[in-house]
C-alpha cells in the first residue's frame, strides 16, 4: 500500500466552530506532502489531531495500517509518527550534544546495570554526533542550545525529532521567523532528510513549499478542497480563489 498516513473525515469543534470539518487526505510513503491554507483554516488543529495532541470529535487517523485516532502522543511516537517544532523540548542550558544524547537515550528507554549504562552512553554519544551532522550542527556541538541562533535552534529541534527514528515527520512551519538565508538552509536540510523520511509539513512560505513538496493539500474552512502535484495546485481554480491569489505570484 502506497499510503503511510490516512486522514479520514477529521472533525474538531470548538464550541460552534468546526476548526476541521471532515478533513481528509493521504500521505504516501517517501513523499514530501505539504499542507497549506489561509490563516485560521485549521492546519494546526489538524496537525495536533494527527500527532495525538488533540482528540478528534469524529473521523480516523490510520498510520501504517494502525488506527491511532485516540492514541496518546507517546503511542504515536512509538509507531513512528513524530512531530517536530516543540521549542519547549530543547534544554537551553545544555549543550547541543547533551540535548541530542538525552533525546537518543529517551528513545532507547531504561536499562539497569552500570555496564549497560556505560555502553549505552557510548552508543548514545555516537548516535547524537551522527544526528548533529545530519542537521548541520557538528560545529556547534559544545555550545549551549540557548545561545544558538533561531535557525540553528530549529535545526536542533529537527535533530531531536530524528532521534525518535520517525517514519513520518510532521513539521509545523519549519521556516517560521527565518530570514532568507536560514530558510534556504532549512530547505536544503529537508531535501536531505527526504531521502530517508516521509515528511508532512505545514508552511506559509510558498516558495519553500513549491520547491520541496511532491504533493500539496489545501485546507480551507477546515476542509481539504484539493490534493495534487505542485502544478495541479498552482492551476487549481478553487485554490487560487480561496488562497493563492497573492501568495502564488512568485511560485
Ligand atoms: N483551542 C481553541 N479554542 C477555540 N478555538 C480555537 C482553538 N484552536 C483553534 N481555534 C480556532 O480554530 C480555527 C482554526 O485554527 P488553526 O490554528 O488550526 O488554523 P491555522 O490554519 O493553523 O491558522 P494559522 O495559519 O494562522 O496558524 C481558528 O478559527 C481558531 O481561532
TrEMBL record:
One of its GO terms (cellular component) is plasma membrane. One of its GO terms (molecular function) is ATP binding. CDD domains: ABC_Mj1267_LivG_branched (cd03219). Pfam families: ABC_tran, BCA_ABC_TP_C. Keywords: ATP-binding, Cell membrane, Membrane, Nucleotide-binding, Transport. Residues 5-246 form the ABC transporter domain. This is ABC transporter ATP-binding protein. The lineage of its organism: Bacteria, Pseudomonadati, Pseudomonadota, Betaproteobacteria, Burkholderiales.
Amino acid at each position: 500500500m502506497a499510503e503511510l498516513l490516512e486522514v479520514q473525515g477529521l472533525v474538531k469543534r470548538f464550541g460552534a466552530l468546526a476548526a476541521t470539518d471532515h478533513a481528509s487526505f493521504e500521505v504516501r510513503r517517501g513523499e514530501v506532502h505539504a499542507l497549506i491554507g489561509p490563516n485560521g483554516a485549521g492546519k494546526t488543529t489538524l496537525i495536533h489531531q494527527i500527532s495525538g495532541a488533540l482528540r478528534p470529535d469524529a473521523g480516523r487517523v490510520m498510520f501504517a495500517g494502525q488506527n491511532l485516532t485516540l492514541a496518546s502522543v507517546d503511542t504515536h511516537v512509538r509507531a513512528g509518527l513524530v512531530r517536530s517544532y516543540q521549542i519547549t523540548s530543547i534544554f537551553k542550558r545544555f549543550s547541543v550534544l547533551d540535548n541530542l544524547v538525552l533525546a537518543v537515550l529517551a528513545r532507547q528507554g531504561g536499562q539497569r546495570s552500570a555496564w549497560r549504562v556505560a555502553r549505552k552512553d557510548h552508543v548514545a554519544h555516537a548516535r547524537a554526533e551522527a544526528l548533529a551532522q545530519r542537521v548541520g550542527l557538528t560545529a556547534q556541538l559544545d555550545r549551549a542550545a540557548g545561545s544558538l541562533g533561531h535557525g540553528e535552534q530549529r535545526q536542533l529541534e529537527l535533530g531531536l525529532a530524528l532521534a525518535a527514528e520517525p517514519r513520518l515527520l510532521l513539521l509545523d512551519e519549519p521556516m517560521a521567523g527565518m530570514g532568507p538565508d536560514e530558510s534556504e538552509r532549512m530547505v536544503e536540510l529537508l531535501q536531505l532528510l527526504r531521502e530517508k523520511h516521509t515528511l508532512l509539513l505545514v508552511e506559509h512560505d510558498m516558495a519553500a513549499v513549491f520547491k520541496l513538496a511532491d504533493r500539496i493539500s489545501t485546507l480551507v474552512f477546515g476542509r481539504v478542497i484539493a490534493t495534487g502535484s505542485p502544478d495541479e495546485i498552482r492551476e487549481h481554480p478553487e485554490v487560487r480563489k480561496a488562497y493563492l491569489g497573492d501568495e502564488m505570484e512568485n511560485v
